[in-house]
Each structure stands twice: as C-alpha cells, then as structure tokens.
Structures
1.
Amino acid sequence: MDIWTIASIVFFGAIFYFLFFKAPPSDRVFTAESDAEVFHVKNHLEANGIKTYIKSRSMRRYHPYGALVNPSLHVLRIEDKKRALQLIKDLRTGIDR
C-alpha cells in the first residue's frame, strides 16, 4: 500500500470514530417550516425557565427556490433538553404546566 491509501484509511477512520463515539449530544429540541412556530415554542420554553436559541432563522429569503433549511430551536444547556421536549409535547397536546 502506498502512503495515500494509508492516510485515507486513517483519516476516514478518525472521522468515523468521532461521529459515532465522540460527537457531542444534539441540543435541538424543535424544528418547523415557519419562524412563527419556532418563536411560539421558544416563548413557551423561556416562560418556563429554559433558555434557548434559534438556528437557520429566515433562511428562505436567501435562496430563490424557498427554504433549504428550516429554522430550529436549541437549548443552551443540554441538561434542559428532556424537560424542554416534555414541555413541547404538552404544548402540542394542550396541557398547561
């Protein structure tokens, strides 16, 4: 084997290892097609003490064919993710906590 083959195997092996064993946990808790939906959920979570931030807000205005990426809501603290998901579930089913 030549050096480029070995280097390629090592490189892709390192990426595989990182993605499956060392990647940080996802902090995304909600995604929707419209900014209004994401802001509604954001306001609900923050009213319940969970700090959040939005990614990919209003991306459709940057692309002529519409949205390629929907806006998504993320928690600042990964410890809040489980509670945030429960609050979102309750919000969708009409339960007020």
2.
Amino acid sequence: MDHRKIHQYKKFNALEELDLNSNLLLMQKIISKWYNAKPDNQDLSLLKDAIVKVSVIINKMMYEKNLYHLSISEYRQDKLRAIERARRVEQELEKIKTKL
C-alpha cells in the first residue's frame, strides 16, 4: 500500500475515533444530567448503564483494531526483512559458485 494512502487512512481513523469519543462523551454528559435531575427514574438508570457499557465496548474494539493494524505492520516488516535476507544469501551463494 502506498505510504500516502496509509498516512491518509491514519488521519481519517484518528478523526473518526475523536468524533466517536466526542459523541459518546456528549451522550454520557446529557444522560448524567438527566439522571441527576431524576435519580429515581428507572429508565434513565438503565439508559445510563447501557451507555457506559457501550462506551467500554467501543473503546475495547478501537484498542483491538489498533493492535490488529500494528500486528499487520509488524508482520509486513518481518516479511520484508526475511525477503531481504534471502536475497543477500542468494547473492552470497552466487559469489561462492563463481569462485568455484
């Protein structure tokens, strides 16, 4: 993949995560305000708990997505290093063959 595309993807991903976190915080703030105004409202209590659970799940999924992309990047680097080592060995082998 082109480095410009990777860089652009990372920018969009960061903006998307920022937008998602901002919206989650906004929902949490509004629900908290409503709940504090009416703490005996069972529906608001359930909604508040659900938003917290959804927020935790989303943050976990974003973390796992970042780990996935990091792993893919490391695997790609390992593959490129292995290819480079194999090429060096082939070149050395050719040098030895020509000496014999």
